[in-house]
Design a protein that fits this description.
about 700 residues, OB fold (Dihydrolipoamide Acetyltransferase, E2P), Rossmann fold, 4 domains, binds adenosine-5'-diphosphate, binds magnesium ion
């Protein structure tokens, strides 16, 4: 777009004027012609097409149907009344439903007359219904004139009460495009337009506001969504390039003795192809002069720990220290024990520091750390305390980062001159495209393969009423020598009640599973760290067969002989939590099971979560569903809502376009990083404009 013309204030547009301009600024943030052109309709009323009832699909937008009313009745439920009508055409029937205005409707609608109905359909209990349809007789319908596709613009109460109706908005748009059509400049390079058959900017804008038919509208939407994602990606990738150029990192140029020795002699298993690939990616980063900022995603049990260790060995071989931070005490201890045992034949010094480390131990650790006598420090948040000073921290690994805030991550940086390389490991897969668009400055590695020989975990859903059968199943498994987790929810807001549930559960299980045949462990957040560890160890050693716990055990715990995971009140857990919990079993050679216990009352959302768990064990598929249920703002615990403020594209629904825009943008920047090629001039101009008018195109907060 021509920047000058389109930066004109809207009060100078015909049909607007100072007072309407003031309202539009206040209510919709529209200041300039450009803002107005970018006010895209929320939806369109498509009155060009008639549907047959048999053609309806579950996710249809508004549809228009011709048919007749064959029945009307009032239905009472509790103290609410609904009016329900049967509406038929020659292909089938649907229900029309009114919750209000019964009397008028009942008196005015005529059975067996032909009507045109228009509205959104719902799918429920195997039938379509349409609540509060717009309807008129076919005769009236045929007499009226109407535009092909009516755009519906975003509005507010104040706007409509001051007379800026949708109709008026439409008129203002007509004026805008009448005056400015010829000033619309292309924002994408010609070769991109051509090779992807995209509409030009001008055609797209005109068709988004004045669509001539559904096909052109779809193409216009596609082009504008593409453009929106494309420029976000251009900005992110450029930021990333600049960032890379600016932030120097320690180059770990050599692959040394510890790494080689470990690789040749002490690797406890053959690495999977994915593990090898990821280690290579990390090696490349570490060997360059830029700081590594990498997110390592891998499903539970995919073997991230060994990747962490090999990276740590590279740092140590280059004379640097490393740290590994985990979210819980239990997990830190487990990492510590695991890594000490893997490294026992190597000459490196490993220490652990957690909230419950003794003061005397702490002092020793602080000192050794500053003297460079510790190669690897493992621990919890305790690593972030001010007293913890590394001599030369070269690599910081953060396990299960969804528990760590971004701020905490940067705190680690401040401990030495150059920032350490950072590797963040998570088993909560964020759909790749989302990760890329939100964390443009993180590189991503994915372990997309489980070590060989793992059996699929069988997942079932059982209602509380079937508890006795579940107990029987637990007994059978224990009889075969297996161990069982029983997990209770613990949500902060209802903590007291949750503890009561946990204790009640513990009691009833103790009654059912009596000593001495059965031994039971219990672990929860209110216990002292020592007691927790004691109980965990009893379970780990097989002295107890049942582990009753809250979500403390969610992350990382590894007991290969445990093959049954019972999740109580599973409807109260989020999808990624359920997936994490399930990942605690299926770590040994035996067939493992996950039982999701719920009450009979389930919300739609809960039903979807449970069904998803039963259906798949693919972490990425689960993450996609999770994303759809919760929206991107919720992901990973950090508050990301507001990071992406999209005007037309939808990060979930338009996933594919995002991927495509991303690859196009990165392809272009790879060949022409500073956008100097003549053909990329439209990108350069738009990019400069975006930066200049950031207040207007405020994509990224
Ligand atoms: P996570 O990615 O969940 O942290 P871990 O690193 O704890 O997974 O690995 C899970 C289990 O799989 C561990 O017992 C580990 O020893 C084992 N493991 C990891 N990689 C392999 C492999 N390539 N072959 C066989 N077993 C492996
Ligand atoms: Mg792990």
């Amino acid at each position: 777009m021509n920047s000058n013309f389109f930066q004109t204030s809207i009060e100078y547009l015909k049909g607007v004027g100072p007072s309407r301009a003031k309202l539009l600024k206040k209510e919709l943030g529209i200041f300039t012609f450009q803002d107005l052109a970018n006010l895209f309709p929320n939806r369109y009323l498509d009155r060009t097409q008639f549907y047959k009832i048999s053609q309806l699909e579950k996710n249809n937008a508004e549809v228009q149907i011709i048919g007749k009313l064959t029945q009307i009745k009032t239905v009472s439920q509790k103290n609410k009344k609904r009016l329900i009508a049967k509406f038929e055409d020659d292909s089938g029937s649907i229900e029309l439903v009114w919750f209000k205005g019964h009397k008028w409707i009942k008196e005015n609608l005529k059975l067996n007359n032909l009507y045109v109905i228009f509205g959104k359909t719902n799918w429920f209990n195997g039938q379509f219904s349409m609540p509060h349809p717009e309807m008129e007789t076919l005769k009236t319908y045929e007499k009226k004139l109407r535009p092909v596709m009516q755009p519906v613009y975003p509005s507010t109460e104040l706007l409509s009460s001051r007379g800026i109706s949708n109709r008026v908005m439409f008129g203002i748009m007509e004026n805008l495009f009448f005056e400015s059509k010829d000033y619309i400049f292309e924002t994408l390079p010609k070769d991109v337009l051509e090779s992807y058959h995209l509409l030009s900017k001008k055609e797209a804008l005109i068709n988004i506001h004045f669509p001539q038919n559904q096909h052109l509208l779809t193409r216009a939407q596609y082009r504008l969504k593409f453009e929106e994602f494309f420029y976000i990606q251009i900005q992110l990738i450029r930021k990333n390039l600049l960032h890379k150029a600016k932030i120097k990192g320690y180059p770990f140029s050599k692959i040394g003795d510890n790494f080689n020795l470990f690789y040749k002699e002490f690797l406890p298993f053959k690495l999977t192809v994915a593990q090898k690939r990821v280690i290579k990616e990390i090696r490349n980063d570490l060997g360059s002069f830029a700081q590594m900022n990498r997110l390592l995603q891998g499903d539970v049990g995919s073997g991230k720990t060994i990747v962490a260790l090999m990276s740590i060995l590279i740092a140590i071989d280059n004379g640097f220290q490393a740290c590994l931070m985990a979210p819980t005490e239990i997990l830190s201890v487990q990492h510590y024990n695991g890594l000490v045992s893997l490294c026992k034949k190597l000459n490196i010094s490993i220490f652990i520091l957690t909230g419950s480390s003794k003061t005397s131990d702490r002092k020793i650790i602080h000192k050794k750390l500053e003297n460079g006598k510790i190669d690897l420090l493992i621990g919890t948040h305790a690593l972030l305390e001010d007293k913890v000073k590394f001599k030369n921290l070269g690599l910081a690994i953060i396990d299960e980062q969804h528990r760590f805030g971004v701020a905490q991550r940067s705190k680690l940086w401040r401990k030495n001159n150059l920032p350490p390389h950072i590797l963040v490991m998570t088993a909560t897969p964020i759909p790749r495209t989302l990760a890329m668009s939100v964390y443009g400055n993180l590189d991503i590695s994915i372990i997309d393969e489980l070590p060989p020989g793992r059996k699929q975990i069988k997942t079932v859903h059982r209602f509380d009423a079937n508890r006795l059968r579940v107990f029987k199943f637990i007994k059978d498994e224990i009889f075969k020598g297996r161990q069982v987790y029983i997990v209770y929810p613990l949500i902060q807001e209802s903590e007291a009640l949750d503890y009561k549930d946990l204790m009640d559960g513990f009691e009833s299980i103790s009654r059912e599973f009596k000593k001495p045949t059965y031994q039971i462990s219990i672990v929860h957040g209110k216990m002292k760290a020592k007691d927790k560890e004691f109980e965990m160890n009893r379970f780990l050693k097989g002295e107890t067969q049942i582990m009753i716990a809250t979500t403390v055990i969610e992350v990382g715990v590894n007991v290969p002989n445990a093959s049954v995971m019972i999740i109580e009140s599973a409807e109260r857990f989020g999808l990624s939590q359920l997936h994490q919990l399930r990942g605690r079993v299926g770590r040994g050679a035996d067939q493992s099971y996950c039982v999701l216990m719920t009450s009979h009352k389930l919300s739609e959302n809960a039903k979807t979560r449970i069904e998803t768990m039963v259906k798949t064990s693919d972490g990425f598929e689960i993450a996609e569903v999770d994303l759809k249920l919760r929206g991107p703002g919720d992901l990973m615990g950090t508050q990301q809502s507001g990071i992406l403020n999209l005007r037309i594209a939808d990060i979930v629904k338009d996933h594919e376009i995002l991927k495509f825009a991303r690859s196009t943008a990165s392809e272009i920047l790879k060949k022409d990083p500073s956008l100097t090629l003549p053909k990329n001039k439209p990108i350069k101009m738009t990019y400069i404009q975006l930066k200049k008018y950031k207040n207007i195109w405020n994509y990224i907060s």
